[in-house]
Known about the structure:
Strand content: 5-15%
Strand order of the largest sheet: 1-2-4-3
Number of strands: 4
Low-confidence stretches: 256-273
Radius of gyration: 22 Å
Largest sheet: 4 strands, mixed
Mean pLDDT: 78
Number of helices: 12
Order of helices and strands: HHHEHEEEHHHHHHHH
Amino acid sequence: MFKRIVLFLVTNLAIMLTLTVIWQIVVASGVIRNTEVLGSYGPLMAFSVLFGFGGAFISLLLSKYVAKWMTGAQVIEAPRNADEAWLLDTVRRHADRAGIGMPEVAIYDSPEMNAFATGATRNHALVAVSTGLLRSMDRQQVDAVLGHEITHVENGDMVTLTLIQGVLNTFVIFLSRVIGSLIDGALRGRNDRERGGGFGYFITVMILQSVLGLLATLIVAWFSRRREYRADRGGATLASTAAMVSALRRLGQGEETGLPKAMAAFGISGGGLVGLLRTHPPIEERIRALQEQRA
Length: 295
């Protein structure tokens, strides 16, 4: 169920890198000089906000399309069998209880037990489940998983994530350029410094943006872990606590199979930073939280 976060982060990173490269091309062409932006903190902050929030909101607007493309998810336009009809009915029931518009419902081919929800607004979302999840869980467990995902939509988690990512992007862009200009200026002569940032500045900014971007990712991952507990409670409310706990236990049995192929390259499995980088709390902690709430 962590695909929606990974897809968002990957899209956001790609957009940020693209905007950075485009900006450097514009600067190199002489249309705009770095000194015009770096001359004072005011214009630089405005530039950072524009690019920072711009990248995050473009990622949000494209989230459904990117998710479908990366997973190969097929939206159920008209149910072809009883299982697809049940999926549509269940999502509609949860959406009605949550007070949101009916999301698109999709299935994607993957042996892993997984599901995700994404979309720019609460009334125009996408809920997708893997074929592996449908094969490995009974309907009560799938019901709880769908309730969990609908709760993410109801809570506006993707919009909140976008705002957090936008703020973090802004500071990453701002700090990387301030530090980059200071380092570049210290390494160059006074006359060279007056001509604005050069190739060394560009390399320094790219490195700093990557390092600071990693720190920002840790904050986003922490936020995601907090949101999962709330979504679990929502799944328990829309389905039942027993069904949600059962679904989590079933998911826990499949964790050792590793990440889905679409995300294997990210390698968030094993190693000392797993706890900081993972977007979901450990299954046993999520189960314990639900059981303590019921008690």
